[in-house]
Amino acid sequence: MTKKILILDTGKEWGGGTNSLLELLKRVDKNTYNFSAIFYYNYKMGVNSDIKSELDKLGVEFILLDRKKVSFRKKILKEAGRACLTLTPGLKKSFVDSVDYRNRILPDSERIAGVLKDREVDLLYMNNQPSSNVEGIIAAASLGIPSIQHGRIDVSLTAFEAEQVNSCAERVICVSEGVKKSFIRAGVDARKCIVIHNGIDSESRAMRDPIDIKREFGLSENGVMIGTVGSLVKRKRIHLLLEAVAFLKNSMVDDISCVIVGDGPERDSLEAHAQRLGVRENCFFTGFSDDPLSYINTMDVFVLSSAKEGLPRVIMEAMLLAKPVIAFDITGPSELVDSNKTGILLREGGSAAIAEAVKKLITDDKTRTSMGDGGRRRVLEEFSMEQYISGVVSVFEEVLA
């Protein structure tokens, strides 16, 4: 008998979690599971598509949650209370949390419960984290429907959020050991947590030749290119990469160029920062791309400067294409990159440390090639798409049993 699973995704923009969700939906047995999905936003996939269109292609019903806007009066009262309690941070947080619970969480949970009931759903599968999915946990519990939380990034939970996970969610899928530890530190029962790493499709290929991309940018075929891929948000710390380019340029690495693939709220300020640093002509902002592998394939070194991650798919993509990876030693990259074997993990030093690591790799062809080859072997052996899909499906089976 086919089981009905409702997905809850409260995100606002396309990211690695979106891609992982779609990979799962492409491969799951449709005779065993029937999916529908609640989204708060029909967020864009570049300029040519959006999440609804991509789900339509997969035969997954897209439900845009009808969320009531909080009245102007309630917003004013909330801000007034926040201002009055500025000198007592604990009380201020408790006040804000209680207001959010009444004005947002409870109303949204009632609407989600309505969808669960109308569609006779067997399981709620949440694709973000408890801080933004707690209304889903409450909704499922109110109807006696099991729920699964898929944690994709380091979390910092309130006592209330951790309590809801412990009392109502059946399982928490964590994309890395680091994410699992963050849930346990936040008070979530370790017995509920299971690590299932993201996976990469070994058949993924770049669609364009690196020479074509360099010509598009007006670069020489032999010039050095570094770069990154991801949403242009503050936690990605793209400014450190731009500053590293400035360090390298000032160190007489004249043929250095950097491609930044992705879009987001920080784009304008990052382009302005590159201008101030005197490296705007060296840095190419492509916007969102549905073919990021082609840009990664053009890079000599891939850099991820994030302050916070879960288990970044983009590092797997770089490793699949045999590119050495430079990243900071944080949750996610620390489990993917074998430092000094498949790339370099930085513990501190900011942009200067990135620049030194890049310089080390672009001046040593043998090491760069060896690290790239080692990364490709590792990702194929340890992070396959098949392992990811079978792991998630096994949790579905366990909970639904």
Structure in words:
There is one protein chain. The protein is of the alpha/beta class. The chain folds into two domains: 3-199 and 385-400, Rossmann fold (3-Layer(aba) Sandwich); 210-382, Rossmann fold (3-Layer(aba) Sandwich). It is built from 16 helices and 15 strands. Helix 1 links the parallel strand 1 and strand 2. The mean pLDDT is 92.
Give the CATH superfamily of the largest domain.
Answer: Glycogen Phosphorylase B
As residue ranges, the low-confidence spans are none
In the CATH hierarchy, the third-tier topology of the largest domain is known as Rossmann fold
Q: Within the largest sheet, what's the order of strands?
A: 5-2-1-6-7-8-9
Which labels suit this protein?
401 residues, Rossmann fold, seven-stranded parallel β-sheet, 17% strand, six-stranded parallel β-sheet
State the gist of this model:
By secondary structure, the protein is α/β, with parallel strands linked by helices. It has helices at residues 16-27, 51-57, 72-84, 89-118, 130-142, 159-168, 177-185, 210-216, 238-250, 267-277, 292-298, 313-320, 333-336, 350-362, 365-382, 385-400, and strands at 3-9, 33-39, 44-45, 49-50, 61-64, 123-126, 147-151, 171-174, 193-195, 224-229, 256-261, 283-287, 301-304, 325-328, 343-346.
